[in-house]
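Batch manifest, entry 17 of 40.
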Amino acid sequence: MIQSIDYAALAPPLILAVAAIGLLLADAFDASRRVLSLLSGGALAAALIAVVALAFGDRRDTLCLPDGLRGNGPRSCSYVADDFTLLFQGIVLGAAVVVVLLSLQEITDSKMPVGEYHFLLLAAVIGALTLVAARDLVLLLVALETLSLPVFALVALRRYDGTASEAALKLFLVSVVSTAVMLFGISLVYGATGAMHLDRIAPALSRLPSDLDPVATAGSVLVLAGFAFKVAAVPFHFWAPDVYQGSPLPVAAFLSVVSKAAGFAGLAIVLALGLPAYAHVWGPVIAVIAALTMTVGNLVALRQRTAIRLLAWSSVAQSGYMLAPLSVGDDRLPEAVAATTAYVALYAVMNLGAFAVVIGFRRRTAPLSASWDALDDYRGLARRSPAVATALAFFLICLAGLPPGVMGLFAKVVVFRATVAGGVTWLAVVMAINTAIGLYYYLVWAVRLFTPASGPSYDPAPGLPVRAAITATATAALVLSAAPQIVLQTVTQAT
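Output type: structure tokens
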């Protein structure tokens, strides 16, 4: 009954776990902010190197059922480091490195405890890395909570800011409810199938007695609802705008990209590996949620006059596009998962870039303007700082899906094609209409950058780390716009 553990497969989260403990010890001995930040960024880079090394090897799995518990079934493992896992771990770690760069000046400006900040950030990343590798419902839930719990503290880490405390409380209450809903759904699935590993749940559901069908149906829908909370899908989205606005901006970027990517990875894993037999149940539910999410997100974004709330509602709308391919059900599920994964990867670059520019812009204007992130504050930015304005305009065009932002157009074409191929034509029509709506508010913001300012103007003065983040995301966006097939080929192979 003693299990052998493949520590190589667990290397990325283990590296971060050791680094997180080292951070706390170094902070206890009054290490400088620069040392702690370098340790955090270095640990993320080391974990990313470990992911790349694993990608050149064979599939690995660990934490498997002992021989005596397998019976005649397949090798059931809780943690699997396959191509899909490594792809999402790479996305998560790459985005986390950018978040660390964006955090360096924010920690100083907001007077946040640097040791606690980086410890909590690494703990949340550990949860995300484990979530995308989990292959049983218990580990999925534990990883999801390991991702969520540190984020509550990160949001509230500006201890004397009432807005941050309010945002953290809202996020905490919503997350507790979503966890309870998901846990109840997991208990129903376990009660119907007698299994927790996804590769055992799937065959059990395919031959489930008819009297247990309502139990499994309710469990599947509740598990889906739990993930819908995490990815801010309508009607479980109401926490996102206030939390984005109240939290430190790098934390908002983390929620918008890293947390969302991990949530979609977990959702795809559960649907594709555990619940394909009930695609006729969750497919139509996801289609309705996707349509509502993109429509509500885009319509409310039209009314926003501040950058952060616009990005928040934009993020809600983008979740709808990511959900759309998964509505096709079991017939074309591999293609649907590939489309969603490609969109998540491309969205991470676009959205992180937009957040990087907003964070750099905020540093100069925050002391001078009560509404430091008002869209009108960006008027004339192209004249005062052409490079920053050009980068932001390009990120917005990518998010809108317009040339020359080919990566954004490519992302929308991929999910649109997967949705049409799956037979959910009405959802593809809704997606096309919403894409047209989204063009308006992205272009309105982009046009302001090149419009002369009517009042006092402020020049962005981003520090070196923020400039590095802007440069890195802009370079990635340019490369992926020139050769978007890189993402699709990588994702297709991984899924």
